[in-house]
Amino acid sequence: MSVVALRSRRPGQRWASFGLHGFLIFYGLLTLTPFVWALLTSLKTVREIAVAESVLPVALNLDAYRQILGSEFSTWFYNSMSVALIVTLASVSANTLAGYALARMRFVGRGAVFRSLLLIIMVPAQVTMIPAFLIVARLGLADTHTALVLTSVVSIGSIFLMRQFFINFPTEIEEAAKLDGCTPLVTFLWIVLPMAAPALATQAIFIFMGVWNEFMKPLLYISSIDNYMLTQGLNAAAKQYEKSAAWNIIMAGSIVSIVPILILYIVLNKYFITLNDQTAGSK
Amino acid sequence: MTEVVLRDISLTRGPATILRNVNLRVEAGEFCVFVGPSGCGKSTLLRLIAGLDDDASGDILIDGRSVQQVAASQRNVAMVFQGYALYPHMNVYDNIAFALRRAKVPKAEIEARVQTAARILQMGDYLQRKPNALSGGQRQRVAIGRAIVKKPKVFLFDEPLSNLDASLRAETRLEIAKLHRDMGTASMLYVTHDQVEAMTLADKIVLLRPVLGSPGLDSVVQIGRPMELYHRPANLFAARFMGTPGMNLFESRVAALSAEGVAFDIQGKHCLAAVSPAGLAVGDAVSVGIRPEHVVTGQAAQAARTEGGNTVQAGVTHVEALGEHSILHTDVAGEGAQPRLRLLAKTTDESVRAGDSLALLLPARAIHVFGAAGAAQARLLTSA
Fold this sequence. Notes:
The complex is a heterodimer of chains A (283) and B (384). Chain A has 283 residues and is an all-alpha fold. Chain A folds into two domains: 3-61, no CATH class; 64-281, MetI-like (MetI-like fold, Orthogonal Bundle), CATH 1.10.3720.10. In chain A, 76% of the residues lie in helices and 0% in strands. Chain A has helices at residues 3-7, 11-42, 46-51, 63-69, 72-104, 110-122, 125-138, 145-152, 156-167, 171-179, 184-195, 197-213, 216-221, 230-243, 247-273. The longest helix of chain A has 33 residues, at 72-104. Chain B has two domains: 4-235, 3-Layer(aba) Sandwich (Rossmann fold), CATH 3.40.50.300; 248-370, CATH 2.40.50.140. Helix content of chain B is 24%, strand content 31%. Chain B is built from nine helices and 19 strands. In chain B, helix 2 crosses helix 3 (107-120) and helix 2 (92-102) runs parallel beside helix 4. The two termini of chain B are 43 Å apart. The relative contact order of chain B is 0.12. The A-B interface holds A 170, 172-173, 175-182, 186, 191, 194-195, 277-278, 280-283 and B 50-52, 72-73, 77-79, 81-89, 98-99, 102-103, 130-132, 136, 139, 146, 163.
């Protein structure tokens, strides 16, 4: 709402919009506060934190960052990044193909497969946690990143998302491609996928975030420090540094762990917006 | 020169019958329009010819070759879809060239064909634009251009004008007609529910009707040139479908049969229709039809009344003035308690008002008589 539009509204409406905006700003600040606090804390020295004189740091002290980047933190960061990227890639591929098959292809048992997925998604992860661990251990994959990848590569929610997307996808375009000489595979790769970019990006963001923030699975499967995911590592480090009250280091770790998500979101943000613009090629 | 032949095409999906016993032949270079109300299977028929659906029984032959087992892209047909179906992530040039690139046509040849199509359809200005930067009419032209460059034997149009607004529709209709003249040897199959498009574009019309729930009924109602369907509808369905406003139709009984034709009862009066009396007996229930534009009003009707011809007296209930002519809604009074008969007539006389009483002449040669089964009685070719 521009200021110009504001002036032309009745007083009652103006108060209402002020109130709404005020509330939104307040809520936004409330949400940002922990992050800002963490950022500021990470730039302080241990003494400053202990003394707790002011909110702002005396000087921009990057010691905390230097310390964590030199420690196992880098290893954990690398672990999380590699697992998240591999899972995102594999998962988006698998979920998209599954969603397409469920939406477009006719095969025996399609209904049964769909209903099974509905059933499976109703079962909480905590229930299947222990059996999954037993299977992984039996396969000799305990304490490996492979275990994490294998157990995360299918996201049923994403399969439903893609299935719904493809159901609403204009079949005329695929038929035009068929008449133009494309096999189903070529149609899928060169026509359907490019048009599905928004849905793929949405998937990618959520899956990456899910893996990056995952705590329970790594805790279950990973036991050696070198294999820790970032979440585990930060948690362990926090416990350790807590004793020496080195909050600046803990906060620095938190801030650094947010950065990839921020970058991913900034890069893929525009795809959220174009998610529903499939009508560009048709009426 | 390509001819398309459909033999005994029937299609049932689950419990629903969509097409039954479709037999037709599209001559080489002909513009053939499939027309009919929703659910008659006209789009389905087109898709069967294109190869997008293949679950029908019967045979489809393009140029004498059966194509039931041939893949869609190998049938040498091109289709223009109702929703244009352009690839949104490619620009116009790439959209048009796509099929040619898939077929590994040499680059120079692709360039030549695309430029020719662009010239024919006046698309030269926006070859580099993406579909979402084009208007509906422009997208339609790109869709047509995409079909042209394939140099197909058969063009298939699936209701291409239904998403355009009225003025654009008229313009694009002309362009399609012109395209047909330019394309020469290719046959064009065109699906529409709009009988105006059918009348103006077609060399041959195939009128289809829904057969769902009517066992034994064939999908094809009538095949013929537009004027043939208009002036000599084969049955009630055809009579009702063609013409705006629709043909006046009412129930009647045969009053007398003679060599001159069939006399029928209209609100107590007897009128003569110049149709063959074959198969009819006095007293049979028939449907009688006459198109509004054939109902004569004014001086000629007055004169005929005094001579005792096919005239009835009617009161005007409503006048729709359309500029070039007016449509008169009239009521023909019956004797006693008989229900009133509504007839529509056209006139260029601007002085007629609601409430006027006037004479309507129903020329014997313009009256259609349909037997109990709905089939039309053959027209009598008399000199009268």
